[in-house]
Design goal:
single chain; about 240 residues; alpha/beta; 8 strands
Length: about 240
């Protein structure tokens, strides 16, 4: 039986790059729930690593500039990723596209740290603060049985390099604050990573009713923190 193209490409890319992936706590992957996965993010290889890990195609939200660069645009389309729009339309495009995929029973993937660790490069066990957009999405989207699965990508061995000058990225997305400097966009090439699955968080009526009340922002913050804490703990191991 033929595998979906994004899954084939992910496995082929990791094999070609010589990336070894070890999986931990596979039994925690929900078998039936609609699924939103959240993970830390340091490398362009994170999306294929996660797809190989769960064995399913994942619709990853990606940066606006990726839809503007020739060849890269075609590559992300083949991988099934969906680019966000620029500036003020970014959040609305994220909600609209993600909700559609979840309602169609497709897995959606989010890197809540944003692009910051990609440009500035965190240490392998360092976790930046999370943006809360994914939590608002999970609490708002009109689907039943949605689960958020926190996943940690822990690098054991890697090579660090330079991808391209930030000025080049600035040409494709002048609005991105991260691209305003004079340095380079870093590139992390994994050699061996551990993928550790956290405990899924079922977005049940209890979560949703709290969100619909006066404490909506607080509920989204609690959900975000719950995912951040799990991933931070897994990385610390």
């Amino acid at each position: 039986m033929n595998q979906p193209i994004p899954l084939q490409l992910s496995r082929s890319l990791l094999d070609a790059a010589g990336v070894s992936v070890s999986l931990h706590n596979l039994e925690r992957i929900p078998a039936k729930s609609k699924l939103l996965i959240v993970s830390n993010h340091r490398s362009l290889l994170d999306a294929p690593v996660l797809m190989k890990a769960i064995g399913r195609p994942v619709r990853f939200a990606c940066h606006y500039y990726m839809s503007q660069v020739p060849l890269l645009q075609q590559a992300i389309a083949l991988m099934g990723a969906f680019p966000l729009e620029a500036d003020q339309r970014r959040q609305a495009s994220f909600f609209r596209q993600s909700a559609g995929f979840l309602q169609a029973n497709q897995v959606v993937g989010v890197f809540p740290e944003g692009a910051d660790p990609m440009v500035k490069v965190n240490a392998p066990q360092q976790l930046s603060p999370f943006y809360r957009g994914f939590a608002h999405l999970a609490l708002r989207v009109p689907v039943d049985g949605l689960a958020i699965l926190p996943i940690a990508i822990a690098s054991r061995e890697e090579k660090r390099g330079k991808l391209a000058p930030l000025a080049l990225f600035r040409r494709f997305d002048p609005s991105e604050a991260l691209f305003q400097g004079d340095g380079w966009h870093s590139a992390i090439l994994y050699r061996h990573v551990d993928v550790l699955f956290g405990h899924p968080l079922l977005i049940d009526e209890s979560w949703k009713s709290r969100y619909r009340g006066s404490g909506g922002a607080t509920t989204a913050r609690e959900l975000t923190q719950a995912c951040w804490s799990q991933i931070a703990e897994l990385l610390a191991r």
